[in-house]
Fold this protein.
Amino acid sequence: MTTRFEISDKPLVVDDVTQKVVSRNAGAITVFIGTVRELTKGKKTLSLEYEAYPAMALKMFQQIEREMHEQWPEAQLAITHRVGKLAISDIAVVIAVSSPHRKMAYEANEFAINRIKQIVPIWKKEHWEDGTAWIGDQLENVPYLSGAPKEGFDD
Amino acid sequence: MINVLLFAHLREVVGEEELVIATEEMTVADVKAWLEARYSLELKQVMSAVNEAFAMEHTVVKTGDTIAFIPPISGG
């Protein structure tokens, strides 16, 4: 049985993720593909490196699925996130959601990427022309909304 | 013994991805203090997870447990 949640150090194949949510009850599948961007606020990225805490990341993907089912019980979710060194335009993450109707598939897919950025322990290191840095809190807000304790990151 | 996992810049500063603390029991706050006393780390803003679940400062880490420090994340 293939698992619907994966961390992979190999190039991602979008259709492999999409196929996991194919269902006879689905009338829509949305697929989000996150890719490596070259320019961020004028700064040029040469490559990226993603690191994960895989065992916990997979548990957090399952938590996202549980949360999604509270809002959209009929939606099905599959997520694969890449780790290792990526070049510009490489695929970092693929999220597929199927549902009976399209609105739910769009909304649940956006919910999933937002929650990934909040609770899944994955980090990216930017390699620029003039140096490197681990990027944190890229949402520029509190990184954990719910599903994680408040204590420990408050100012 | 408590296993400690480090990621991203924490791993690079410490130079190891895994450490072992020879103790029976410590709180998360104690483990942070232990690390800060030995390495040039600031862990106040860093989240932690015990056995792959987010933990609190007062969560007790027991022998055989794994505590991971989770700096602000940037996946997706």
In short: Strands of chain A lie at 5-8, 28-35, 39-40, 43-52, 76-82, 84-87, 91-99, 122-128, 131-135. The first helix of chain A runs from residue 14 to 19. Chain A touches chain B at residues 34, 50-53, 55-57, 59, 81, 92-93, 113, 116-125, 134-138, 143-144, 147-149, 151-153 (CB under 8 Å). The radius of gyration of chain A is 16 Å.
